[in-house]
């Protein structure tokens, strides 16, 4: 394709199948509506309206994804908007997962029972640590801009899973990242930590995006197009040096692996997960991870499937490093949010193991892993918001000593989630790992599986430490209290926990759906 | 030496009739566990009854199924219950396999399990958490039954992890004791090492055979390259060692005695710890196919049985002596299943006999503790026979059974193992045979010591004990029944055709005859060795012993008191590399460096603003890490292309 063709293609107005991308439009459109509401509505109504809008948009989008997915696009995948967007099985499955987990995260974000006025800052512009800051933390209800921000981020993630060319993918990457950078800095308590996390995330995110753009440029230079299928065709037939392609792929992968938190591009994860308001952390750990892997899956399976023999060893080394280093570093953590952050790093490695099988079963198992892990991790972070002392959430491990005696239900649930993370059978943690490791074997990646098993054993230790701490140690004198969750948090927790159990007992329910969805268009 | 037999095709018929409901064995205790754990305090009044009734019902069913299976021509039925998980070409089902081996285990688990459940009604009477205890106990029984009834390795593994979880919960039962908490943790960690090996074995099966179904794996194992078979066998052995407390993963088992005594009896003596033996016996076509693999099993067994005996001689805590004795007896079972051929059945026979006498001994120890205010130090017992007649007699019978005095159980089960070890021939026959023989002598020694110090000689009680009392009837009856089992089980099984019963599983019952010695001579020698152990021990301990620990005079005593440095070994094997790895990784990780620096700054007295400055500075180091990683990735891909 010459430059002239590309220009010509841009000039003619592309046909857009609005029905196929309706979920995306709803989420982004309601996000924009939320901004208007924020400006126009009196302060007293904003919270209610925003919560309802946010939830309604996601539920509506979810319903359309499911109905349309079942009726049309899972069996008849399509490209639309001049081939910029793919509406196919993986896209719909991941969008559905993002929406479901987004709803759970929204419930956590909207909760105002645990903290007077919600977990978010009232006036973000007030200098942290000043008198005015202390005042706003105590008295004012939080601003509601976090809700449109959430919708924009979710819209970006959905677009990211569906983007069929690198340019759209890059736009989606920024659409999902920018609201998250902001949301990270909005914590009501510990604002310095929160703002620091936001700045770090922003700087490093920008850094990684630069890699992505550079890689895109290289690939355009190689293939003459940014369209994924075009790159795949060029990989087979182009007469240009494929060094360009491999360097481009490497750069692109760095941008993607950054979002997925793979070693060595994971360095931001613990700081950001720790500093961000916990409901936002839950959103990032579940939905952002899904989106990142959605992008990785599409790029690798659509554009680079035929060159897999060349690049797979490199990504396999990254997967092994991610699994092992994530697990090992989790062992030394003393803060539960950081512990879960490193566990999330290790989990990225497990998903990568499934992805690298480069078989259909690899797509299936990765899709399954992402949604199941998302439920567990939302529930785990949701539980963190319940354990509180005078300074807000008590996340230092030592503060959790003896919780089993004070609050058996919370400790029992958390212990169950930890066992799931540790991969004990009859939890989703086992079936998901089993699925990705099985897929990796399918693709002949036995070494990856062995490292994966070793890593999962290592990773059991830190989880066990939390359980031992909760049950077998004396509570401290000034032990934190366990708040009774409001209806919204309770719903999110219950759904997350039940899903963890159900996906562990009857994984075939979801695996079956994932299998039906595991074919990329084209 | 048995040559790797060319396995016949393994085939399981589809279950029908009575046997199509075998899953009830698992479902009943599981349902009861769910009720007990979810119903809360409402079920405190009747919880223990439900707990016992459910396992009792399972026992009745197990007997019924047993007779149903006996009536069948093809003694192995499999039942497909549903699909569990399918990934790509790999599929795992919920499925049950009921054959003579699993039937035997089901009877042991439900039978001995029921007796111990009943005993626990009395033992845990004063414990406010008794209902929860029965919940965990039932959960254990369900998981253990799943372990032995599954028809693929994944089912076994699920049960395997289930019994593990129940075991940790029960070891840590007395949460207020720090030692109990540590013991639970230790058990979990060491078992994870074993479980990892088991998992690797399963993935190897998947990778090379495409399935973990017993039938597919066993039929396919013959065609595998020997290296793969050996790797699978060794990984399975690793799992088995973890669960069964065999060298080098034995150190958790004695610590597990921190749990309530019924737990020690059921989980850590009669059933769960024998799961490793079950696994090897079940996977016998794999071990048959690799002589090196099975020889390693024999070596592990022989080594562990001596190790357990030696440490057992040096311990003063009655439950720990029994625990090391368990380690040692399971060593015999490993030895037997490693020998292969007809010795498989001998291993299972010993497992059954051991289930009776060791459970009985533990319940006896529990009864003594019950009467002696929960003390476990044998140096402060003595002369108890007058006060606890029933306990004295039942423990006495268990004692005679374990050391192998004819015609009690142990004689029929242990003696053939010793003979089979000698019959292996060559230097291996001598080494393993002598180890087994020496083990028998040492067993006699430390068990006599235990018995004499506890029940005979002078009273060496602590001051707070005036009248030790015999336990209530609800505890006595199970002890008596188990004692009867200890006396009769061995002989009944041997003359009742137990080995023939297992023939369909293992394919052969023939134990190779010793070449150079007659059977009578061998039996005579082993009885003499045992009697020697008894007499020496009796002479040494009939007058009692010092009431406090004496300085160890010889290196071997010192080593034995230190558990033959098993903990040290584990530390160097598993903990140290782990620690080094962690440190290295922390050092490499930008955040780790950050954390150390931040921590140092805090110690040095940095104010919060200084800390903040330090932390923001590190975005650079993060960016540097990312850049470094990027360079490596790009370079690697270029190298792939250019290289």
Automatic annotation (TrEMBL), chain A:
InterPro entries from the UniProt entry: NADH-Q_OxRdtase_suN/2, ND/Mrp_TM
Main location: membrane
EC numbers: 7.1.1.-
Location in or out of the cell: Cell membrane; Endomembrane system; Membrane
Gene Ontology CC: endomembrane system; plasma membrane
Coiled-coil regions, chain positions: none
Bilayer topology annotation: Multi-pass membrane protein
Keywords on record: Cell membrane, Membrane, NAD, Quinone, Translocase, Transmembrane, Transmembrane helix, Transport
Residue ranges crossing the lipid bilayer per the database entry: 20-41, 48-70, 90-110, 199-223, 243-268, 280-301, 313-332, 368-387, 408-427, 447-472, 484-506
Superkingdom in the source lineage: Bacteria
A GO molecular function held by the record: NADH dehydrogenase (ubiquinone) activity
Residue span, NADH:quinone oxidoreductase/Mrp antiporter transmembrane domain: 163-458
Biological processes per GO annotation: ATP synthesis coupled electron transport
Pfam families documented for this protein: Proton_antipo_M
Record's catalysed reaction(s): a quinone + NADH + 5 H(+)(in) = a quinol + NAD(+) + 4 H(+)(out)
Subunit structure: NDH-1 is composed of 14 different subunits. Subunits NuoA, H, J, K, L, M, N constitute the membrane sector of the complex.
Family note: Belongs to the complex I subunit 2 family.
Family annotation (HAMAP family): NDH1_NuoN_1
Function: NDH-1 shuttles electrons from NADH, via FMN and iron-sulfur (Fe-S) centers, to quinones in the respiratory chain. The immediate electron acceptor for the enzyme in this species is believed to be a menaquinone. Couples the redox reaction to proton translocation (for every two electrons transferred, four hydrogen ions are translocated across the cytoplasmic membrane), and thus conserves the redox energy in a proton gradient.
Protein name: NADH-quinone oxidoreductase subunit N
Organism: Actinocatenispora comari
UniProtKB/TrEMBL annotation, chain B:
Transmembrane helix recorded as keyword: yes
Coiled-coil intervals: none
Subcellular localization: Endomembrane system; Membrane
GO cellular component, one term: membrane
Gene Ontology terms for molecular function: NADH dehydrogenase (ubiquinone) activity; NADH dehydrogenase activity
Membrane topology value: Multi-pass membrane protein
Main location: membrane
Transmembrane portions of the chain: 20-39, 46-67, 101-121, 133-151, 157-175, 196-217, 223-242, 263-280, 292-314, 321-345, 351-369, 390-409, 429-452, 473-498, 518-541, 619-640
Record keywords, A-Z: Membrane, Transmembrane, Transmembrane helix
Highest taxon above the source species: Bacteria
Pfam family, one: Proton_antipo_M
Residue intervals of the NADH:quinone oxidoreductase/Mrp antiporter transmembrane domain: 151-436
GO BP field: ATP synthesis coupled electron transport; electron transport coupled proton transport
Stored InterPro entries: NADHpl_OxRdtase_5_subgr (IPR018393), ND/Mrp_TM (IPR001750), NU5C-like (IPR003945), Proton_antipo_N (IPR001516)
NADH-Ubiquinone oxidoreductase (complex I) chain 5 N-terminal domain ranges (all copies): 84-134
Gene3D superfamilies the record matches: 1.20.5.2700
Name of the protein described by the UniProt record: NADH-quinone oxidoreductase subunit L
Organism: Actinocatenispora comari
Gene that this polypeptide is encoded by: nuoL
């Amino acid at each position: 394709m010459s430059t002239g063709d590309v220009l010509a293609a841009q000039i003619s107005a592309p046909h857009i199948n609005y029905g196929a991308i309706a979920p995306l439009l709803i989420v982004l459109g309601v996000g924009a509506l939320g901004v208007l509401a924020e400006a126009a509505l009196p302060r007293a109504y904003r919270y209610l309206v925003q919560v309802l809008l946010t939830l309604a948009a996601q539920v509506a989008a979810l319903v359309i994804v499911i109905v349309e997915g079942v009726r049309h696009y899972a069996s008849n995948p399509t490209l639309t908007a001049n081939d910029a967007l793919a509406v196919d099985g993986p896209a719909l499955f991941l969008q559905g997962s993002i929406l479901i987990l987004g709803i759970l995260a929204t419930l956590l974000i909207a909760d105002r029972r645990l903290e007077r006025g919600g977990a978010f800052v009232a006036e973000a512009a007030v200098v942290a640590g000043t008198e005015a800051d202390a005042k706003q933390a105590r008295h004012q209800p939080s601003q509601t801009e976090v809700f449109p921000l959430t919708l924009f981020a979710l819209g970006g993630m959905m677009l990211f899973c569906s983007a069929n060319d690198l340019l759209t993918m890059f736009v989606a990457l920024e659409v999902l990242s920018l609201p998250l950078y902001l949301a990270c800095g909005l914590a009501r308590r510990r604002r310095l930590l929160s703002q620091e996390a936001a700045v770090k995330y922003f700087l490093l995110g920008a850094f990684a995006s630069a890699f992505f753009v550079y890689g895109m440029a290289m690939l355009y230079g190689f293939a003459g197009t940014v369209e994924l299928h075009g790159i795949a065709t060029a990989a087979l037939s182009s007469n240009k040096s494929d060094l360009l392609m491999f360097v481009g792929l490497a750069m692109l992968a760095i941008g993607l692996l950054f979002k997925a938190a793979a070693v060595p591009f994971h360095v931001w994860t613990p700081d950001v997960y720790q500093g961000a308001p916990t409901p936002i952390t839950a959103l990032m750990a579940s939905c952002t991870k899904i989106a990142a892997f959605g992008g990785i899956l599409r790029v690798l399976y659509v554009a680079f499937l035929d060159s897999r023999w060349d690049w797979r060893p490199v990504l396999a080394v990254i997967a092994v490093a991610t699994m092992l280093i994530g697990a090992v570093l989790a062992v030394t953590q003393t803060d539960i949010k950081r512990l879960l952050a490193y566990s999330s790093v290790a989990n990225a490695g497990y998903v990568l193991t499934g992805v690298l099988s480069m078989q259909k079963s690899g797509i299936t198992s990765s899709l399954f892993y992402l949604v199941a892990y998302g439920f567990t991790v939302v529930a785990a972070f949701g539980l963190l918001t319940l354990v509180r002392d005078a300074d807000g959430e008590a996340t230092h491990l030592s503060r959790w000593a003896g919780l089993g005696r004070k609050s058996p239900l919370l400790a029992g649930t958390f212990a169950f989630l930890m066992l799931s993370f540790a991969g004990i059978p009859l939890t989703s943690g086992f079936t998901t790992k089993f699925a990705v490791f099985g897929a990796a074997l399918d693709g002949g990646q036995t070494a990856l599986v062995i490292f994966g098993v070793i890593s999962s054993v290592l990773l059991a230790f830190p989880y066990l430490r939390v359980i031992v701490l909760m049950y077998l140690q004396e509570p401290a004198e000034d032990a934190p209290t366990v708040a009774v969750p409001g209806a919204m948090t309770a719903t999110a927790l219950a759904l997350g926990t039940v899903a963890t159990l159900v996906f562990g007992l009857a994984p075939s329910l979801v695996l079956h759906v994932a299998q039906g969805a595991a074919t990329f268009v084209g | 030496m048995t040559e790797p037999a060319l396995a016949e095709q393994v085939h399981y018929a589809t279950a029908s009739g009575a046997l199509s409901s075998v899953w009830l064995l698992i479902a009943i205790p599981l349902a009861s566990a769910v009720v007990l754990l979810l119903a809360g305090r409402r079920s405190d009044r009747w919880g223990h009854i439900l707990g016992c009734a459910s396992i009792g019902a399972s026992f009745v069913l197990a007997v019924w199924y047993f007779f149903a299976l006996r009536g069948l021509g093809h003694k192995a039925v499999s039942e497909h219950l549903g699909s569990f998980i399918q990934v790509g070409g790999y599929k795992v089902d919920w499925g049950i396999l009921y054959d003579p081996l699993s039937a035997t285990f089901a009877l042991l688990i439900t039978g001995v399990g029921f007796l111990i459940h009943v005993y626990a009604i009395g033992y845990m009477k004063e414990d406010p958490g008794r209902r929860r205890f029965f919940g965990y106990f039932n959960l254990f029984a369900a998981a253990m039954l799943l372990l032995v009834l599954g028809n693929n390795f994944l089912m076994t593994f699920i049960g395997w992890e289930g019994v593990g979880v129940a075991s940790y919960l029960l070891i840590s039962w007395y949460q207020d004791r720090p030692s109990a908490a540590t013991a639970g943790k230790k058990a979990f960690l060491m078992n994870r090492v074993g479980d990892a090996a088991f998992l690797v074995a399963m993935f190897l099966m998947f990778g090379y055979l495409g399935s973990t179904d017993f039938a597919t794996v066993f039929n396919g194992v013959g065609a595998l390259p020997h290296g793969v078979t050996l790797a699978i066998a060794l990984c399975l052995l690793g799992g088995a060692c973890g669960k069964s407390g065999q060298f080098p993963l034995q150190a958790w088992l004695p610590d597990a005695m921190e749990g309530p005594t019924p737990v020690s009896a059921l989980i850590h003596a009669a059933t769960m710890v024998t799961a490793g033996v079950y696994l090897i016996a079940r996977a016998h076509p794999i071990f048959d196919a690799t002589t090196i693999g099975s020889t390693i099993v024999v070596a592990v067994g022989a080594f562990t049985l001596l190790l357990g005996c030696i440490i057992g001689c040096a311990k003063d805590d009655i439950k720990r002596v029994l625990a090391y004795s368990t380690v040692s007896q399971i060593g015999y079972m490993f030895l037997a299943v490693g020998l292969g051929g007809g010795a498989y059945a001998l291993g299972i026979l010993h497992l059954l006999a051991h289930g009776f006498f060791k459970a009985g001994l533990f319940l006896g120890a529990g009864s003594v503790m019950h009467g002696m205010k929960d003390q476990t130090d044998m140096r402060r017992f003595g002369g108890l026979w007058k006060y606890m007649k029933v306990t004295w007699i039942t423990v006495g019978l268990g004692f005679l059974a374990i050391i192998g005095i004819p015609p009690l159980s142990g004689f029929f089960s242990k003696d053939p193992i010793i003979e089979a070890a000698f019959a292996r021939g060559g230097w291996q026959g001598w080494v393993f045979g002598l180890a087994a023989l020496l083990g028998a002598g040492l067993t006699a020694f430390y068990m006599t010591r235990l018995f004499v110090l506890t029940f005979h000689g002078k009273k060496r009680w602590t001051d707070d004990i005036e009248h030790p009392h015999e336990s209530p009837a609800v505890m006595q009856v199970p002890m008596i029944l188990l004692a009867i089992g200890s006396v009769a089980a061995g002989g009944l099984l041997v003359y009742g055709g137990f080995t023939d019963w297992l023939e369909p599983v293992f394919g052969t019952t023939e134990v190779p005859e010793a070449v150079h010695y007659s059977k009578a001579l061998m039996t005579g020698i082993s009885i003499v060795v045992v009697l020697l152990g008894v007499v020496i021990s009796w002479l040494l301990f009939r007058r009692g012993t010092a009431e406090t620990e004496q300085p160890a005079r010889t290196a071997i005593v010192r080593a034995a008191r230190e558990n033959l440095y098993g903990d040290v070994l584990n530390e160097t094997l598993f903990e140290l590399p782990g620690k080094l790895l962690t440190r290295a990784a922390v050092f490499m990780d930008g955040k780790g460096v950050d954390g150390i620096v931040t921590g140092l700054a805090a110690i040095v007295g940095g104010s919060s603003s200084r800390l903040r400055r330090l932390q923001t500075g590190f975005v650079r180091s993060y960016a540097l890490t990312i850049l470094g990683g990027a360079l490596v990735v790009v370079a690697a891909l270029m190298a792939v292309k250019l290289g």
